[in-house]
Design a protein that fits this description.
Protein-Tyrosine Phosphatase, Chain A, single chain, 14 helices, nine-stranded mixed β-sheet, globular, five-stranded mixed β-sheet, UDP-N-acetylmuramoyl-L-alanine:D-glutamate ligase, alpha/beta, Udp-n-acetylmuramoylalanyl-d-glutamate--2,6- Diaminopimelate Ligase, Chain: A, domain 1
Length: 430
């Protein structure tokens, strides 16, 4: 999005120092800022104000600051993060197309990626890069929307109550998608019912002429229909789902294909991503296409080519032919079970899950031990890394513990992001 420094000052309640320059987009990272962007120095582990000079040297047109200006064009504000959020909220008014918000305890990034690809097959579409889904990333995504964009897809994350409501106050979504409610961050909101309340903030924010797209197979998500002032569209396996999956099949690396029944007709879908749960994420994505009057067949064809954000159900083979399923970006009990199901679906004679900590869940010991039993029930060996919560002796060197992998072996690597198990997948793949 393009705007001027005076408009930034007006939107943020700030004071302009220097010339009223033209600005094209924003960045809070001085290392990757592009010429013409607004630099927003955030205060976290490091104080972003220390990098204003570096941002200007890389071509930043202007910057926010809570400190005395150091040259160039500056907008002095009380708080740079609040300034970023206020600017995004004002600039949102200049976007006239559909704004689709996606949240859920699991599947939100994959659904966002699939929706982006499906919608982009028919209309210029923009979405969060990586997982820019919080109070920093979402405003940045919105303010970096290319000029010709017709559809926005915005992933929304949360770590506590009120956070999605705040993101909605900025983005003002017209369509809301909720994937699943699970134990992710449940320790911060009083358990899984608190998670449901937090996710439902998206539904409460939708306008009367909007649309709520809800997972029909999740009882807590389905129940959110009663909180929606907007019409509701259900997707999933349930017989009463408006967008319903049928005839689901998996290929030799667990990539799903299925028939999708929708209010706009039927289509056959073949996915490039592995895991039967990806079929449901794709159904939600295609529901977004139908909801805005898009080409369902063209969108379905696009999904046969699209990959997902790194470390999410990535299937690769070692030099010896063993399958490595890298789903190491994050983990909670629901997503781990889905990944174990995907591992069980792979053609292998030996299946091993390398599992690390599932963080921020309300009953860690019970949930980890339940995962161990679930894996064993599916004929999967488990190697625990860095935690005794699974009830088995952990290993410090999972690569060595796995030994030489052969063509009949399949390995899942999964843990919460803080564990950094992607290093294990990288080591296995050489």
């Amino acid at each position: 999005m393009r705007f001027r420094a005076e408009a930034v000052a007006a939107a943020t309640g700030g004071r302009l120092h220097g010339p009223d320059v033209a600005i094209d987009g924003v960045s809070f990272d001085s290392r990757s800022i592009q010429p013409g962007q607004l630099f927003v120095p955030l205060v976290a582990e490091r104080d972003g104000h220390e990098f204003i000079a570096a941002a200007l040297a890389r071509g930043a047109a202007a910057y926010l600051t809570t400190r005395p200006p150091v040259g160039g064009t500056a907008i002095e504000v009380p708080d740079t993060l609040r300034g970023l959020m206020a600017l995004a909220a004002v600039q949102r008014s200049s976007f006239a197309g559909p704004v689709i918000a996606v949240t859920g305890s699991v599947g939100k990034t994959s659904t966002k990626d699939l929706a982006w690809a499906a919608l982009a097959a028919g209309r210029p579409t923009w979405a969060n890069e990586r997982s820019f889904n919080n109070e920093q990333g979402l405003p940045t995504t919105l303010l970096n929307t290319p000029d010709l964009t017709e559809v926005l897809v915005l992933e929304m994350g949360m770590r506590g109550l009120g956070e999605i409501a705040e993101l909605c106050s900025i983005a003002r979504p017209t369509i809301g998608v909720i994937t699943r409610v699970a134990e992710a961050h449940s320790d911060r909101v009083g358990g899984i019912e608190g998670v449901a309340r937090a996710k439902a903030e998206l539904i409460a924010a939708l306008p009367h002429d909007g649309l709520a797209i809800l997972n029909a197979d999740d009882v807590r998500v389905r129940a959110m229909a009663s909180q929606s002032a907007a019409p509701v569209l259900l997707y999933g396996d349930a017989p009463d789902a408006d967008v319903r999956l049928d005839d689901l099949r998996l290929d030799d690396i667990a990539r799903p294909s299925f028939l999708l029944h929708t209010p706009w007709g039927q289509c056959r879908v073949h996915l490039a991503a592995s895991g039967r749960h990806m079929a449901h994420n794709a159904a939600a994505a295609l529901a977004c296409v139908g909801a805005i009057g898009g080409d369902l067949q063209g969108a379905a064809a696009a999904l046969a080519e699209v990959g997902l954000t790194a470390m999410r159900m990535e299937v690769q083979r070692t030099a010896a032919g063993a399958i490595v399923l890298n789903d190491s970006y994050n983990a909670n009990p629901t997503s781990v079970r889905a990944a174990l199901d995907a591992l069980a679906d792979l053609p292998a004679t030996r299946r091993i899950a390398v599992l690390g900590l599932m963080a921020e869940i309300s009953d860690p010991e019970a949930e980890h031990r339940a995962i161990l039993e679930y894996a064993r029930g599916r004929g999967i060996e488990v190697l625990a890394v860095g935690t005794e919560l699974y009830g088995i002796e952990p290993t410090d060197d999972p690569v060595a513990a796995l030994g030489s992998l052969a063509g009949g072996d399949a390995v899942l690597v999964k843990a919460s992001r803080v564990v950094g198990l992607e290093r294990v997948a990288a080591a296995l793949l050489g």
